[in-house]
Amino acid sequence: MCRKNWPLKIAGLCFVLVETLFFLQTAAQAQSSRSKSAASYFARGSESNARGDFDRAITDYGIAITFDPNFAQAHYARAQAYISKGEIEVALDDLNRALELDPRLAAAYNDRGYIFSAIGKRDSALADFNRAIELNPRLPGDNYNRAVFRIRQRDYKGAILDLDRTIKLTKKQARVYNNRGYVRAALGDRDGALADFNRAIKLDPQHAAAYGNRGELRLMGGDYLRALADYNQALTLSPHYLKVNSNHELVPLCFDKRSEAQSDFAPCIARKPDLNSWLEERIKQLQAQLPMQGLQKQK
Question: Cβ neighbours of residue 244 under 8 Å, at least 6 residues apart?
Answer without folding.
Answer: 208, 211, 212, 215, 231, 234, 235, 238
